[in-house]
Amino acid sequence: MTDTGTRRLTAWVHGEVQGVGFRWWTRSRALELGLVGSATNLPGRRVEVVAEGPAQACESLLVALRSADAPGSVEHVAEQWSDPRGGLDGFVER
C-alpha cells in the first residue's frame, strides 16, 4: 500500500493470541503510531484489530502484528483495507 491518506485496517490475527497480553501489546503499538480503534477477542483463538489513521501507520501496525515481537504465537493475519468510518476515540481492548 502506498497512498498517504487516512485508512481503516481490519486484521484478524489467528493463533495463540488470547491470554498472553496480545491486545494490550497491540493497543500500545497502535497508540505509539497515533491510531484509533480496538483489539477484540473472538472465538476460535482469534483477535480482531480495527485501526484507523494514516495509511503508513496502519501498515506499520500490520507489520508489527506479523512480527516475532508480538506476544503469543501468531499463525496467520488476514487483512482488509477500507475507507475510514470515523467515530473512534482512542484505542480500546475488548
How does this model look, in words?
The protein is of the alpha+beta class and 94 residues long. Helix content is 23%, strand content 43%. Strands 4-1-3-2-5 form a 5-stranded mixed sheet, with helices on one face. A hairpin with a 3-residue loop joins strand 2 and strand 3. The longest helix has 11 residues. It starts with 5 loop residues before the first strand and ends with a strand.
Compact description:
By secondary structure, the protein is of the alpha+beta class.
Structural class designation: alpha+beta
Gyration radius, rounded? 12 Å
Q: How many strands in all?
A: 5
Low-confidence stretches: none
Total number of helices: 2
Report how far apart the termini are. Answer: 28 Å
Strand proportion, as a percent range, falls in: 35-45%
In N-to-C order, the SSE pattern is EHEEHEE
Percentage of residues in helical conformation: 10-25%
Instruction: Give the averaged pLDDT, no decimals.
Output: 95
Quick one: overall form? Answer: globular
The side-by-side strand order for the widest beta sheet comes to 4-1-3-2-5
- Main sheet makeup: 5 strands, mixed
